[in-house]
Every structure is written in C-alpha cells, then in structure tokens.
Amino acid sequence: MKTYIxxxxxxxxxxxxxxxxxxxxxxxxxxxxxLSGICAGILADGxxxxxxxxxxxxxxxxxxxxxxxxxxxxxxxxxxxxxxxGRWGDSEREQxxxxxxxxxGFKTTPDSGxxxxxxxxLDSPPPDPVVFPGRNFNITGRFAFGSRISVQDAIxxxxxxxSDSPPTTQSHYLVIGTYATRDWVTANYGRKIERAxxxxxxxxxxxxxxxxxxxxxxx
Length: 219
Description:
Elements: H1 21-42, H2 50-66, H3 72-82, H4 90-103, E1 136-140, H5 148-157, E2 161-163, E3 173-176, H6 191-201, E4 207-210, H7 211-215
Parallel strand pairs: 1-2, 1-3, 3-4
C-alpha cells in the first residue's frame, strides 16, 4: 500500500508557502465534495462498471496528490489495495462500490431528510453491545433521534457521560448523527471524526459508531 505524506508547499526558492487555514480547509472541503459527487453519480444505477472503477481510482489518486490529508489518504490507500491485482473484476468492483457507499453515505431510502453522513470512519464491525454506564460519549452531526441535547440526555439517563466536545483519550464512543450539517469543516467529514480516527489508530480504545447502531441499545 502506498503511503502519502503531507509535505509543506515551497516556492521556487525553497521557501515555505504559508496557506491560510481558511483557504486550506476550503480546499479540503471542495476535494471531498468533488469525490462525493463522483461517487453519487457512479452509484446512481447501483452498479460499478470496469470503466467507472478505473475512472474513480484515477480521480482518487489525482485528488489525493493535490490534497494529501485524511480522509483522502485513507481512501486512496484502500483503492490502491484493491487495485493491487491489476484488474477490476467482480470482486474488486464490489469492494470499490462499498467504499463509494461509505464516502457519500449512500442510503437506499429516498426520504432521509438531509445529506447522509459518511460511514467511512465507522468501526467495522461495530461494538456489540454499546455500553452506557461509566462510559464517555462524544457526539457529532445532526441526529434523526432529535436535538443534540436530547441525545445527551438519553446517554446520561442510561448512566453514561455525554459531551458535544471533541473526543479525547478518555472517550469511549463517538456517535455520528445520521445527517451531515453545514458546521462540519469538511462536509461529510468533521474535525471530531478526524480526531477520533487518530485516537483509534493510536490505540485509545475509542469506537466510532453510527446513530443507527447507537439507537439499537437504547432500550
């Protein structure tokens, strides 16, 4: 699997080019929105042809070279892994389809009521059961369950601790709401999710779960 490293941009004299944070975040947002749009277009007919698979792989690599940050680097790594065989057979295209569905939060129900959150960062398989007593929950996104306050109340009623703040090494779960919201820095991918992914990779024990999975354990 290829490794993509974010390197600071330099001018012709080798001096660092400082990119304002707002512009950088805007570039990341545009890149992910572009990739999400490509996924939605390819998945419109429910199938991924060999030509579409090749096109998607090329676009992912091109976009990642321009903006080599998470989650693009993670997506590109997965595409490289699938493409290691050098062919786009049924198995490879099905795996690629699953990645596309995760990227754009693909849903079969048309009445979702909003833009669905990406499932790319979710634990697979998700933790079973989701334990509430003595556990720390962080939440992000917009919830079909209700307001964030009602989500936090539901967690506290079951003995858990709930927070709307970014996750820390003390967090046990990050629950992602069903719908994306405009306050997410990079469209479907929030800063809280990025933070949780880093914590998980460092072995903190945090689990990233969907609202749908979280709700299964409320009763």
